[in-house]
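Audit log entry. Action: structure prediction of a protein-small molecule complex. Ligand: zinc ion. The ligand was supplied as SMILES and no pocket hint was given, so placement is left entirely to the predictor. Protonation state taken as written. Sequence taken verbatim from the request; no trimming, no tag removal. Recorded inputs:
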Amino acid sequence: MFCKKCGNALYDDCNFCHHCGEKQPAKEEEKKEPEPDPTDATLLFAILILVAIGFYFLYVTGHIH
Ligand SMILES: [Zn+2]
C-alpha cells in the first residue's frame, strides 16, 4: 500500500506513514464478518409459517362457502 498523503510505500499492516506520519485508513481486509443473527431467520420463518397458515385458512374458508 501507499501513503494516501505523500505516496510513500508502506507495509500493508502499517497504520502510520513512516515518511510523513499520516494515519492510514483501516484496511479493508480486516475480516469482521458480522455474526449471523439466528433471531432474524427464526422470526422470518415464523412470519412465513403464519402467512402460509393465513392463506391456507382463506383457501379453506373460500371453498366451504
Ligand atoms: Zn506519508
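Audit: result stored. The chain has a mean pLDDT of 85. Residues 3, 5-6, 8, 17, 19-20, 22 surround zinc ion (CB under 6 Å).
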